[in-house]
């Protein structure tokens, strides 16, 4: 893939003219699972689609270029992407993990540790460098960061954490789902591995389930490639094509998501029904707390334009209730202690006209009185 001076151009040109035989501008969808050879030791570079597929390869090279990594890996979901990274480790290895982390990540780490003792998660405030350093033990092998975190939108200093990690010979893994490479590129700040739920902003249209991993360093990339092929949870050619197509408009969409979210955050702060608003000022993700827990159910019934749904990052606006959706597997007492209270709602602000979004919120709030 050719990279350009500006990420907007690189995104639009991803996969274009990748088939020199036909000159196809759009990336072809190659569905074949097998690829013929002319003889022993002679290969086109493609042998079996689990190992390598031409359509998936365009996406994998594309995300590697966008994130500034050496190799990219496309998986069947964001959780499959995290599980691939986990496969690099074995007991008694430990990860230091952002204490406010996506509930699905918590569930996977919790299950794997309690049932298989593969990897021990140690939760820490990753916004506090001293807290991170104090939590490091001889078994610590990596630091797993979400920034901003899901759903409390907490930020941390990836460059400072990476410097600390290098001092202790640890890997730094950053979930960059909320910011995307348009807004932030963790590898440029010292991270070793970046992971995305590409279901979200990267694909951007609520029609693709996908995960992406990008890594820096030949040895690390070779290990991930071996594990990806061995585990086999790879992204299909058709979904790879859809992800590539979605990426072409990512820069435009992120600009609108962020502009809308900035305005919505301020709008919410001015509403008497709102207790607090959590927004990093980046991306289209924010959370807010209603003043009364009992208002949650009628509010979610009342919204009409905005959809009450569990995902995020698509063109449409979604509101999620973490307590019973994304973070329901965290025990209630622990969840509330982390700040994920029963009056908290997560808002993935879409690219609709801002006035229509405000009008929907106003009419929903009016029904709470």
Radius of gyration based on Cα positions: 21 Å
What share of the residues does DSSP label as strand, in percent?
15-25%
Query: Residue ranges: pLDDT <50 for 5 or more in a row?
Result: none
Shape: globular
What percent of residues adopt helix (DSSP H or I)?
25-40%
Order of neighbouring strands in the sheet with most strands: 1-7-6-5-4-2-3
**Whole-number mean pLDDT:** 95
Largest sheet: 7 strands, mixed
Structural class: alpha/beta
By DSSP (H or I, 4+ residues per run), the number of helices equals: 13
Distance between the termini: 56 Å
Secondary-structure element string: HHEHEHEHEHEHEEHHHEEHEEHEH
Overall strand count: 12
What's the SSE blueprint?
Layout: H1 7-13, H2 54-67, E1 71-75, H3 78-86, E2 94-98, H4 103-116, E3 120-124, H5 129-135, E4 140-146, H6 158-167, E5 171-175, H7 180-183, E6 193-197, E7 211-215, H8 218-231, H9 237-247, H10 250-269, E8 274-278, E9 285-290, H11 296-302, E10 307-308, E11 318-320, H12 332-337, E12 344-348, H13 354-366
Parallel strand pairs: 2-3, 2-4, 4-5, 5-6, 10-11
Antiparallel strand pairs: 1-7, 6-7, 8-9, 9-12, 11-12
């Amino acid at each position: 893939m050719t990279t350009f001076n500006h990420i907007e151009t690189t995104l639009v040109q991803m996969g274009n003219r990748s088939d020199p035989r036909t000159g196809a501008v759009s990336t072809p969808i190659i569905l074949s699972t097998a690829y013929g050879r002319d003889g022993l030791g002679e290969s086109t570079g493609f042998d079996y689609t689990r190992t390598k597929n031409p359509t998936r390869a365009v996406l994998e090279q594309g995300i590697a270029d966008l994130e500034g990594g050496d190799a990219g890996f496309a998986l069947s979901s964001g959780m499959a992407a995290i599980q691939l990274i986990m496969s690099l480790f074995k007991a008694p290895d430990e990860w230091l993990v952002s204490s406010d982390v996506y509930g699905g990540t918590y569930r996977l780490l919790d299950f794997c540790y309690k049932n298989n003792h593969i990897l021990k998660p140690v939760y820490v405030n990753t916004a506090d460098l001293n807290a991170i350093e104090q939590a490091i033990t001889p078994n610590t092998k990596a630091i797993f960061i979400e920034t901003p975190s899901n759903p409390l939108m907490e930020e941390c200093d990836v460059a400072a954490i990476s410097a600390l990690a290098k001092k202790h010979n640890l890997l730094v893994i950053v979930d960059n789902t909320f910011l995307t490479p348009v807004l932030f590129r963790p590898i440029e700040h010292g991270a070793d591995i970046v992971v995305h739920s590409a279901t979200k902003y990267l694909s951007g249209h609520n029609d693709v389930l996908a995960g992406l991993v990008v890594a820096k360093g030949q040895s690390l990339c070779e290990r991930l490639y071996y594990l990806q092929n061995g585990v086999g949870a790879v992204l299909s050619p058709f979904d790879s094509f859809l992800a590539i197509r979605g990426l072409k408009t990512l820069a435009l969409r992120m600009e609108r998501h962020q502009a809308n979210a900035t305005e919505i955050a301020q709008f919410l702060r001015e509403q008497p029904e709102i207790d607090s608003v959590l927004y990093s000022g980046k991306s289209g993700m924010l959370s807010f707390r209603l003043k009364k827990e009992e208002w949650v159910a009628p509010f979610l019934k009342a919204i009409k334009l905005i959809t009450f749904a569990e995902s995020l990052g698509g063109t449409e606006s979604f509101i999620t209730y973490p307590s019973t959706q994304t973070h329901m597997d965290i025990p209630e007492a622990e969840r509330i202690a982390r700040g994920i209270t029963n009056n908290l709602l997560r808002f993935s602000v879409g690219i609709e006209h801002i006035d229509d979004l405000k009008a929907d919120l106003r009419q929903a709030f009016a029904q709470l009185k």
